[in-house]
């Protein structure tokens, strides 16, 4: 598996890092409910993902302030499965385990099911529809929030035994809570150079390379939120892998590599590590 889907891909999402109080319980959730594979674990942290690729890092800090759901930070981490069949197989496993589900939506560009981890971090597991089915007009993609036809999705399962998420899975996008949409747009479009792909009541979606969204920001729970106070539970950092040309435009330069990231912070203190690939 390669993070570089094609030479034309200039941006992909990397690992998401969360700070947690109960490392054992949260690791178990991402292994059992989400299906990530445990790649490394010690008393202080754990890395989960697919193959040799870390998608999620959990850092143990029992003394960290517990994050309020009304402050800036993570809305959800969205794990992208490689096919509708994989999403159907995962959904069958969720039903077999009777895992609590927070929602299930048809977004026109994708089908998604939502969970919440034991410490309140949102999780989306989704599969994209084929790109030729996405509808674009004037640079904006049509995304909906309709009820998911679960029975139709389950019919796409091939009945294969569930052994965790397939190796081609990735972090497809990260959705953030912010204090104000205009400031979010100034940073994520203006500073990071992402395209605005959709405006939705209380939310803006951003992407590169014609994707529906790599990042989203909303004020549904966090309107007028101030700068985050660390250490706290929840989102610690997210990685974004960028091609040299895009990195130069952001100001990361072309000489960095994946071992020497440029770390920025959005207006609410959420840390973003840019790694040049």
TrEMBL record:
Pfam families: Glyoxalase (PF00903). Residues 12-128 form the VOC domain. Signal peptide: none annotated. It comes from the Bacteria. InterPro entries: Glyas_Bleomycin-R_OHBP_Dase (IPR029068), Glyas_Fos-R_dOase_dom (IPR004360), VOC_core (IPR037523). This is Glyoxalase. The lineage of its organism: Bacteria, Pseudomonadati, Pseudomonadota, Alphaproteobacteria, Hyphomicrobiales.
């Amino acid at each position: 598996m390669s993070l570089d889907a094609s030479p034309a891909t200039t941006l992909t999402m990397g690992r998401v890092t969360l700070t947690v109080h109960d490392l054992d319980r949260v690791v178990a959730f991402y292994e059992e409910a989400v299906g990530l594979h445990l790649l490394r674990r010690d008393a202080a942290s754990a890395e989960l993902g697919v193959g040799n690729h870390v998608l999620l890092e959990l850092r143990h800090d029992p003394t960290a302030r517990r994050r309020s759901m009304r402050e800036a930070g993570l809305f959800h981490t969205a794990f992208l499965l490689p096919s509708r069949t994989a999403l159907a197989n995962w959904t069958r496993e969720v039903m077999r385990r009777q895992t609590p589900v927070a929602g299930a939506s048809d977004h026109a560009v994708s089908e998604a099911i939502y969970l919440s981890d034991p410490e309140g971090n949102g999780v989306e597991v989704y599969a994209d529809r084929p790109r030729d089915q996405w509808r674009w007009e004037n640079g904006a993609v049509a995304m909906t929030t309709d009820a998911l036809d679960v029975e139709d999705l389950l019919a796409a399962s091939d009945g294969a035994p569930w052994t965790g998420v397939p190796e081609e899975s990735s972090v497809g996008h990260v959705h953030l809570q912010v204090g104000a949409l205009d400031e979010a747009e100034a940073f994520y479009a203006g500073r990071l150079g992402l395209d605005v792909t959709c405006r939705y009541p209380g939310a803006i979606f951003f992407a590169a390379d014609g994707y529906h969204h790599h990042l989203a920001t909303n004020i549904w729970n966090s309107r007028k939120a101030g700068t985050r106070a660390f250490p706290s539970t929840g989102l610690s950092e997210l990685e974004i892998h960028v091609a040299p040309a895009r990195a130069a435009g952001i100001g990361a330069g072309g000489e960095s590599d994946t071992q020497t990231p440029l770390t920025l912070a959005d207006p609410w203190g959420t840390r973003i590590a840019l790694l040049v690939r």
